[in-house]
Specification:
By secondary structure, the chain is α+β, with helices and mostly antiparallel strands. The chain has 13 helices and 20 strands. The protein has helices at about 5-15, 35-45, 60-70, 70-75, 80-90, 110-135, 145-155, 160-175, 180-200, 295-300, 320-325, 335, 360-365; strands spanning about 25-30, 50-60, 95-100, 140-145, 205-210, 215-220, 225-230, 230, 240, 250, 250-260, 265-270, 270-280, 285-295, 310-315, 340-345, 375-380, 385-390, 395-400, 405. Strands 5, 6, 11, 12, 13, 14, 18, 19 and 20 form a 9-stranded antiparallel β-sheet that branches. Strands 7-10-15-16-17 form a 5-stranded antiparallel β-sheet, covered by helices on one side. A 4-stranded parallel β-sheet has the order 2-1-3-4, with helices on one face. β18 and β19 form a beta hairpin. α1 crosses α2. The two termini are about 40 Å apart.
Length: about 400
């Protein structure tokens, strides 16, 4: 891939993604797959005035070794140096960039039960920091090709050709064109306008139906609003958390969801795939489920904690989207969730509450925002999906027809 276009992508992540401010620190998490591009992102952060950029390298085989050889007690510990970093995050509020290149099958064979137990024990130790950091800093998830990921998508190509093909798909769906920064300004405006229309309806419930069997109703929080594209931190800094993004999303009312939803795409979770699955909800809670592939992992997700069986997000994404139209199943949630309508199990977004800046996190959760240690998106959108909004004044308004916006 030409360095000129990769530099545009790096600039997009630094300027439009996290929007680095002069004097801010930046922490980057990246795999070992594209070190030259990571260096480009570091350079762009410094050009925007970053005072310090720290790169933490990630490698899936090491995670498998840690889970295999460490005890649950050791895996779940919060060491002094790890806690010091959380305190540093709270003190400095650095930007956080995540460059994903993971192999979708890279953690196959890991001891799922041991990993889940360690996370359950560890989460109470970090929850205070996670809650204290909520909405206060800029973050962005973007992607770069990994060799194993690229070969899974394009097995008929050589490794080099597959990586190049995946670069092309990432850049195209991320709107990296002649002027990607302007393209994102235009895209953010479109998403903002669609959210404004949805918010004008006064939606009480959304009803989803599709020919695959999905028949599902979910309730809305009266004080909540749809959001999409860029966001503004509590420090007043505008940023784009996901590159790419196509969604208008909201956090639903905890405890108000009925019916069954069928996944329309595989779910890549912890380097493993869950496929051909459905979930049935009653009184807001997942009460029954099954996956043809990796049913045990699906069950672990839903039962991780008290809130993991409830919904934290409803996201509307047209079937006629750049990612869906690419014809590529990415086996990566960042992309696949932006190819179809999706739901998320677990933690909701406090910043979907109108005036959340003047409320505590506890007050937002008291209004109906779900709390959990997880947030796991799964795709339900299909080419024939219909979604109706049932409004608080008794109207039924078409929102989606044949998988796309009805307005």
């Amino acid at each position: 891939m030409k360095k000129t276009i990769l530099k545009k992508y790096a600039r997009l992540i630094a300027e439009v993604g996290v929007n680095v401010q002069k004097g801010q620190e930046v922490f980057i998490v990246a795999g070992l797959d594209q070190p030259e591009f990571v260096a480009m992102v570091v350079d762009e952060c410094y050009k925007l005035g970053a005072s310090r950029v720290v790169v933490d390298w990630d490698y899936q085989p090491l995670e498998k070794l840690h889970v295999r050889h460490q005890s649950v007690k050791t895996l779940s510990e919060l060491t002094e140096y790890q806690e010091a970093r959380y305190k540093h995050y709270l003190d400095k509020l650095p930007c956080r960039i995540y460059l994903d290149s993971d192999d979708p099958d890279g953690l196959r064979g890991i001891n799922q039960a041991k990993q889940a137990k360690a996370r359950q024990k560890r989460y109470p130790l970090i929850k205070g920091y996670v809650d204290a950091l909520e909405n206060k800093y800029q973050w962005c998830i973007a992607a770069v090709p990994g060799a194993a990921w690229a070969k899974k998508l394009f097995p008929e190509l050589s490794k080099r050709q597959a990586i190049e093909k995946l670069w092309e798909a990432i850049l195209a769906t991320s709107r990296v064109n002649d002027d990607p920064i302007q393209a994102w300004k235009d895209h953010n405006k479109d998403l903002h306008d669609r959210c404004a229309w949805l918010n004008s309806l006064g939606i009480e419930k959304l009803h989803y139906t599709a020919s695959n069997g999905t028949d599902f109703t979910v309730g809305m929080i009266p004080e909540a609003e749809f959001k999409g594209g860029g966001d503004t931190s509590l420090q007043g800094i505008f940023f784009n958390p996901n590159i790419p993004t196509e969604e208008c999303f909201i956090s639903p009312m905890k405890g108000v969801a009925e019916g069954i939803v069928y996944a329309s795409k595989p779910l890549s979770r912890d380097g493993q795939l869950i496929d051909q699955f459905w979930i049935r909800f009653h009184e807001g809670k997942a009460v029954e489920w099954h996956a043809d592939l990796n049913d045990a992992l699906l069950g672990q997700i839903i039962t991780m904690d008290e809130g993991s069986a409830y919904l934290g997000e409803c996201a509307l994404v047209p079937y006629d989207s750049p990612i869906q139209n690419s014809g590529i199943l990415f086996y990566n949630t960042l992309f696949d969730e932006n190819a179809a309508c999706h739901l998320a199990l677990g933690m909701g977004f406090a910043d979907t509450i109108k005036g959340f800046e003047e409320k505590t996190l506890e007050e937002c959760r008291a209004l109906g925002i779900n709390d959990s240690m997880i947030h796991v998106d799964f795709m339900i959108g299909t080419a024939d999906m219909a979604i109706d909004a049932i409004t608080r004044d008794g109207r039924t308004v078409p929102v989606f027809r044949n998988g796309n916006w009805a307005f």
